[in-house]
Amino acid sequence: MLMPKKMFRQELERTLHGHLTLSHPIFAELVADGRPDIALLRNITLQGYQLTKHFLSYIEHLFFFCPLPQFKRALLVNCYEEETGKLSGTDNHVTLMQNFIQALGVTDAERDAMVALPATQELIDYRHELVRDPARYHMGAAAVMIASEGQNLETAGGQARHEMLGALFGLQPSDLLFFSVHQQEDVGHVNQGLSLVSTLCRTEREQREALEAVDRTCRLFYGMYENMHQAYCRPAAAYPPQAVPAQDAPMPPSAASRSNPAARPA
After folding, report:
1. CA 241 to CA 114: how far, in whole Å?
2. What is the pTM of this model?
3. 22 lies in a domain?
């Protein structure tokens, strides 16, 4: 049965919030035995970077194919901010992520040598397939604007993801701009996505497909963390060739002082 627009919007939001990736065990591994694991954080971040590199392309396709003129301007503004960072007074969003990676002690060469794990690549490809197909525009918008941008709104114990990272690893606010900017901006982006998709879907089938796109995208995010957990956390896996070994990228002084009291300045 076709849901009224308001009810459908609420169902989209409920589906998004029904998946909590911060509950994945890999985040507990970051502080296993009370010691922050900088090597694991590097690997998680470098997999996340694979997603960041493609995000502007998703928004560009959604702007280009948008069938509802009243939403095109917001998508264009989103593209402008992703590319320039002018609206937030920061920088290109890929550059912001690169700055965070550098703060973790990863070189540009190590960053660029990382390849996506299979589950990471599956998430990248799924969203590309949707946004490039005008017939599935409603699914692409749901996957990107609701399910993907909604990932940055998660909190645990009242703390956002970047706040927890800063506290655990001694990172500065300037290192975390990628996350703090998205934490603020994506509230509006998710609301825009909810409005766009709930307006666009005019049949029961379209509503069902949009809900399925949100659900699948969230599950793919969780699967990405599961793949990382298998690759980087379980003893038998150790560090695969595409990972950054701990000894190749020294721990930043601020992070080192937290995990090794002897490293703290007198």
Report:
1. 9
2. 0.84
3. yes
What CATH code is carried by the domain that includes residue 158?
Answer: 1.20.910.10
Range of the domain at 236: 8-253
Evaluate whether 190 touches 78 at the Cβ level (below 8 Å): no
Nearest alpha-carbon partner for 54 in 4, 3, 129, 105: 129
- Overall number of domains in the chain: 1
- 14: in domain: yes
State the DSSP H helix or E strand holding residue 156, giving kind and residue range, or none if neither. strand 155-156
- What DSSP state is assigned to residue 159? E
**Residue 137 CB contacts under 8 Å (≥ 6 apart), including other chains:** 62, 65, 66, 67, 131, 200
pLDDT tens-digit series, residues 217-250: 999 999 999 999 999 996 533 333 344 433 343 4
To 10 degrees, what angle do helices 204-232 and 5-17 make? 10
Structure tokens at 91: 């920088």
User: Is residue 29 within 8 Å of 43, Cβ to Cβ?
Assistant: no
The Cα diameter of the chain in Å comes to 68
The gap from C-alpha 85 to its chain's centroid, in whole angstroms, comes to 17
In the chain, DSSP finds a helix count (H) and a strand count (E) of 12, 2
Closest CA to 108 of 97, 92, 121, 124: 97
Please give the structure tokens belonging to residue 31. 């502080």
pLDDT digits (tens, 9 = 90+) for 101-121: 999 999 999 999 999 999 999
Alpha-carbon distances, residue 7 vs 1, 10, 72, 192, 259 (angstroms): 12, 5, 24, 16, 48
